[in-house]
Amino acid sequence: MNYSELVQTYFERTTALQWYWTVYILVIGGVIGFSTFRQYKELPTTILVTVLFGCFAYKNFDALDSTFTERNAILAALKAYPAGPDVTPVRERLEATLTGPEYTSYGWFHLVCDLMTIAVVWVKEWHRIPWKRGTVSGAA
Questions:
Q1: Domain extents for the chain?
Q2: By three-state DSSP, how is residue 131 classified?
Q3: DSSP assignment letter at 133
Q4: Calculated CA dihedral for residues 138, 38, 25, 115, nearest 10 degrees
Q5: What is the CA radius of gyration of the chain?
Q6: Contact status, residue 61 vs residue 110, Cβ threshold 8 Å
Q7: Is residue 139 scored above 80 in pLDDT?
Q8: Angstrom distances, CA of residue 100 to CA of 44, 51, 61, 67, 75
Q9: pLDDT tens digits for 2-35?
Q10: Nearest to 64 by CA among 111, 98, 96, 30
């Protein structure tokens, strides 16, 4: 790979990271929205939503971690690329800006968001009206 292909690959991995975060935030919004608009207590549904969100969060974090590792490997390759007349002017300006979050910072952020989302789902469940036999869902 030449220097320009490495730079392009670095930014492709950065875009992939942004998409993983976007999907993650959209799913959190959907889970909280679903939990907010339910009227009656339904413990099995809450358990299912919690388990499914936990599985999604685990896989999403795994994808983020893999992509972050790939991006760091590409950055290391960029910095190790041999200097040349076509690379040096770009390298001086570009490589100083190619920084990212530490592994622990996004890992802890993801975990805290996961726990807060699950907490919201369960707090909403505890504050719902108990379901009574003979009531029609959606009736006042």
A1: 3-126
A2: coil
A3: T
A4: 180
A5: 22
A6: yes
A7: no
A8: 40, 31, 16, 12, 10
A9: 888 998 999 999 999 999 999 999 999 999 999 9
A10: 111
